[in-house]
Amino acid sequence: MTKLLKVHGSENTFFIFDISKMENKPSIEQLSQLTIAFKKSNNEILNDIDGILVVDSSKHADCLGKMTVINSDGSIASMCGNGLRTVTRYLADEFGKDTFKVETQKSDLHVERSKKLAQNVPAFGVEIGPVLFDKASFPFTNLDTDEIHDQVVPQLDDELKFTAIAVPNPHLISFVSDEVLNSDKLKNLGTYLNGDNPYFTDGVNINFATIIDQDVLFVKTFERGVGFTNACGTGMSSTSLAYALNTYKGDFDKVITVYNPGGMVKVKVKRTGDQFHLELIANATNIGTLTAPEAELLKHDFSNIAFEKTNEDADYLLWQPH
């Protein structure tokens, strides 16, 4: 029998599939097809996910494991901040460590256990990076610029200002009015730039943000490979950096509070010269454990699955700020 842990970070919901102990490890392609099958299933335990987080062993120094992020459409993401927190908790509990690194697609990231947000609402802090601005890191093209920093991009919109930051997931960020936030602009732009287009040829995550107060933001995300999502960890982190760059000239060391449809996170943003450091701090909630015969699972036969739920999600919803 195979066990998958169902988890969420800021209501970004995933299954963690640890293949490190499996004798015959499924391929990433098999797991991509499984993710798509989960999403298409009529079973609500399976279909309400943003993807699968594949955990494997790592040969990198100080890394307790390797994380591969599979989006709900079967594509592979460079990183996922909300997912990384849940994998951090899984590895911390598995190995009995509170501070370590996790190998991701682009870099080995420092992670740690943080102070609980509330009773039965554990929290973890994860490094987000590397921070990149050059057009090759997205990639973007045909926009008459090598970087995008708080500027109007006429090819995308006549009025909105954008900032482009990859961490390494590519993000296009705009600070907007409540009217724009509640309009169809994010949906229309997200759909366009994640389809066949001449500007972001691999697609891009788009974040619309409003400034609630000093160092307090609300962020709404159209995520590449997912669409609208309750939260996007790399999106909230990159948006916090864009806000700090626009607000604090020169070096800075700030904690930004970010609200989103899935709850609230804290983002530590630090700049020293040309060096940037981001840390995303928020919940890592275990929803329950799925048990299924391995062979049936990989054949997309879900008739014999069992699911044991925890009470952690209920406690998270009681705590979740509005």
What order do the helices and strands come in, and which of them pair?
Layout: E1 2-9, E2 12-18, H1 28-40, H2 44-47, E3 51-56, E4 63-71, E5 76-77, H3 81-95, E6 99-103, E7 108-118, E8 121-128, E9 151-152, E10 161-166, E11 170-175, H4 178-181, H5 185-193, E12 205-213, E13 216-223, E14 227-229, H6 233-247, E15 252-260, E16 263-272, E17 275-283, E18 285-292, H7 294-298, E19 306-309, H8 312-319
Parallel strand pairs: 2-3, 4-6, 11-12, 13-15
Antiparallel strand pairs: 1-2, 1-18, 3-4, 4-5, 6-7, 7-8, 8-17, 9-10, 10-11, 12-13, 13-14, 15-16, 16-17, 18-19
Could you describe the 3D structure shown?
By secondary structure, the chain is of the alpha+beta class. It has two domains: about 1-125 and about 285-320, Diaminopimelate Epimerase, Chain A, domain 1 (Roll), CATH 3.10.310.10; about 135-280, Roll (Diaminopimelate Epimerase, Chain A, domain 1). The protein is built from eight helices and 19 strands. The protein has a 19-stranded mixed β-sheet that branches. About 45% of the residues are buried. The mean pLDDT is about 95.
